[in-house]
Amino acid sequence: MIVLNWLAFLIALVVVAVSWGLYTYQPELLLGTPWGPVHVGVLLAGSFALGVLVMALYALAWWIGLRRTLGRQGRELRQVRNEVETLKRAQTQEVSAAPGPDQQP
Question: Which Pfam families match (predicted)?
Fold first, then answer.
């Protein structure tokens, strides 16, 4: 996980460096948008940020689904354990009431 964190950090640094380099060394790289001309470096950084935001939303949805699934499985596991304990108690009561080999008539 540490390697993935460093890789994500390095990719973000590269995007920032490329955006800054384009913005600084190529000031004429403008694209027309409905809001007026926007520099390609700004569009690159903005699209990267939008991609990170969408990825974070997917990760959040996955985490919420995982928590829901784990909660459901935990409830089912507790229910099964309670049923097993109930059956064990019932079986011990039955076994203790049965006569042993030395108690035969």
Answer: LapA_dom
